[in-house]
Specification:
alpha+beta, 6-stranded antiparallel β-sheet, elongated
């Protein structure tokens, strides 16, 4: 591998990081976040990487610490993923069992449950998260050609913006010069020389 390829972050990984920082409301810069993530990964690898705990709900993995909420009859009910279990009312339950305990039969857990993953500030409907997870599984990872195409498109947009900026600066500078020519000055704009 060449040195440039080894030191470049994949475009989809960078986009994932930028999206996360934006949605979480973090004030950390992408460089600082990447630096912290690399340090944490190295430390975890050195320590023998612990097994990630959480609750597997069909195709959706809810990491340890995920909060679960259901609204029913203008009241909020909460559960939490602790270790590998979903805990509601002090007992380990499934998402379906939680909806049954709260509202009885006829409820759809994917539709009625809202999730807040660790580190996130917003609640997201379980059905939406399931759709995202399914989409990720069904979407093939970008190829090198895709990455090059994205890079070329970004470079094209940057060049277009640069040309527009240069044209704007050129126009502004010529406009300023035109205003300063003697034929455009008023007699009252001229200052008298005082000896």
């Amino acid at each position: 591998m060449n040195a440039l390829h080894e030191n470049t972050l994949a475009p989809h990984s960078l986009q994932l990081l930028l999206d996360f920082l934006r949605t979480s409301g973090s004030t950390v810069s992408p460089t600082e976040a990447a630096d912290a993530a690399i340090k944490a990964w190295v430390a975890r690898e050195k320590a023998g990487a612990e097994v990630l705990h959480g609750y597997q709900w069909k195709q959706l993995f809810l990491p340890d610490g995920t909060r679960v909420r259901m609204e029913y009859l203008e009241q909020s009910y909460f559960a939490r993923v602790v270790g590998d279990q979903l805990i509601y009312g002090g007992a380990s339950v499934s998402p379906r069992a939680m909806t049954l305990a709260i509202a009885g039969d006829g409820r759809n857990a994917w539709r009625d449950l809202w999730l807040r993953m660790p580190g996130e500030r917003d609640w997201v409907n379980a059905r939406r998260l399931r759709a995202r997870a399914t989409e990720r599984v069904n979407t093939p990872p970008p190829t090198a050609a895709d990455a090059l195409t994205s890079a070329a498109k970004a470079m094209g947009q940057a060049l277009t913006a640069a040309v527009t900026l240069i044209e704007h600066v050129d126009h502004q500078s010529s406009t300023v010069l035109e205003r300063r020519t003697p034929r455009n000055r008023r007699v009252t704009d001229l200052l008298e020389d005082i000896d």
